[in-house]
Design goal:
The chain is of the alpha+beta class and about 200 residues long. About 35% of the residues lie in helices and about 30% in strands. It has four helices and ten strands. Strands 1-2-4-3 form a four-stranded mixed beta sheet, covered by helices on one side. The protein has a four-stranded mixed beta sheet with strand order 5-6-10-7. The protein has a two-stranded antiparallel sheet with strand order 8-9. The chain is globular. The mean pLDDT is about 95.
C-alpha cells in the first residue's frame, strides 16, 4: 500500500464492514452496503474528494439502518486517520461552501487530531426514500470522532432534503481534498506544537 491508503475491518454483533480508502485516488468507488441512499452520498463524497473508496458491509437492516450507518462512519473515520499518516506537509484546513440548486451548505474542517462535530443542519423531511435523515448526524459524528478531525457542517438555506444532504457530502469531500493537499511551503506539520 502507498503511504496514503488504508484498509480497516470491523465486526460486531450488529455489523460486519471491510473498507479500503486511497487518498491519492481519482474518486472511484465500489460500494455494497445495503443502504442505497448512503452509497449515493458516499459516492459523491469520494468523487468530489478525489479519493478511491471500497466498502463491503452487512448489518442488521431488518431492525433499521442506524447501526450500519453509524458503524460505516466509524470505519471510514478510522481509515481516514490511518491513511493520513503523519500529516507532514499538508494544508490541514479545508473549507467549502457548496450550492445545490436552492440549497447552500458550508463545510469547514481542521485535521487537528481533536475530534469535534458542530452540526447545524435542519433537514425538512424525516425520510428521503427509505433513509432516515436523522442518521446523517450520527454518521458525521462517528466519522469526525474516529478521523480525529474538527468538523463544522452548516445549512445556510435550503428546502429540498435531498439537495441539502447531497450538498453536505459534496462539500465535505471538497473540504477534505483541500485540507489533505501537500503544500511545499509547509515543513513538517502545520502546527506550532510540531504535532497534529
Amino acid at each position: 500500500m502507498s503511504k496514503r491508503e488504508a484498509r480497516v475491518e470491523r465486526k460486531t454483533g450488529e455489523t460486519d464492514i471491510t473498507l479500503y480508502i486511497n487518498l491519492e485516488g481519482s474518486g472511484k468507488t465500489e460500494l455494497n452496503t445495503g443502504v442505497p441512499f448512503l452509497e449515493h452520498m458516499l459516492n459523491l463524497m469520494a468523487r468530489h474528494g478525489f479519493f478511491d473508496l471500497k466498502i463491503q458491509a452487512v448489518g442488521d437492516l431488518e431492525i433499521d439502518a442506524h447501526h450500519l450507518v453509524e458503524d460505516i462512519g466509524i470505519v471510514l473515520g478510522e481509515a481516514f486517520r490511518k491513511a493520513m499518516g503523519s500529516k507532514e506537509g499538508i494544508k490541514r484546513y479545508g473549507f467549502f461552501m457548496l450550492p445545490m440548486d436552492e440549497a447552500l451548505v458550508l463545510a469547514s474542517l481542521d485535521l487537528s487530531d481533536r475530534p469535534f462535530l458542530v452540526y447545524n443542519v435542519d433537514i425538512p423531511a424525516d425520510k428521503v426514500g427509505e433513509f432516515d435523515t436523522e442518521l446523517l448526524e450520527e454518521f458525521f459524528r462517528a466519522f469526525a470522532h474516529e478521523a480525529r478531525i474538527t468538523l463544522h457542517l452548516k445549512l445556510i438555506h435550503g428546502k429540498n432534503s435531498h439537495h441539502i444532504m447531497e450538498a453536505l457530502f459534496k462539500a465535505l469531500g471538497r473540504s477534505l481534498d483541500q485540507a489533505l493537499q501537500v503544500d511545499p511551503r509547509v515543513e513538517g506539520v502545520p502546527s506550532t506544537k510540531g504535532k497534529l
